[in-house]
What does this fold into?
Amino acid sequence: QFHLDPQPNETDEAALFVAEHMSGIARRCHAEKVPFPSMYAWWVLSDVFDESSYRIEYPFIGCMGMLSLQNIRKPVYNTFRMISMLGDTFTAMSVLPDNSKVNGLAAQDETGIQVFIYNSSKESCNLSLSINNIKTQKKPIQYRCYLLDSDNGNSYNTWVTMGKPAIAAMS
It folds into this structure.
């Protein structure tokens, strides 16, 4: 029976799961000197393929898709989107302070260096990055920050803040 209680696959927990595992895969590939996988599978892209006959009046019903039945992007979708923005050559990266809650991925392509950092704790922190094996660039470093947390890129929390309305009430 599906219900409207928080479901890990609908919240930032699924996004964090993907970030942690992709980071682990990147570190292992770098250590073993093998290419980073060109794809990574999630159960289903959209809830339209997963139990779509249950509670279709609500956007979040505990299904495994990256998109709701109504095509709303869940937090896990945004994690995959951010990782897809990384370059094609992954390299080793370390984050200080060294703990299991903060880590990430670093990559490089002809446009520069891309870094993806995740923090599995709900607390903010100061950190220092060390990225190895990068090609020297003679141009100034520019950065762009994309956030995915309880306030940014998180459609589930936005929906909860709205009072968990039915789709008809959201139009």
About this structure: The longest helix spans residues 12-32. The helical segments are 12-32, 75-84, 155-161, 167-170.
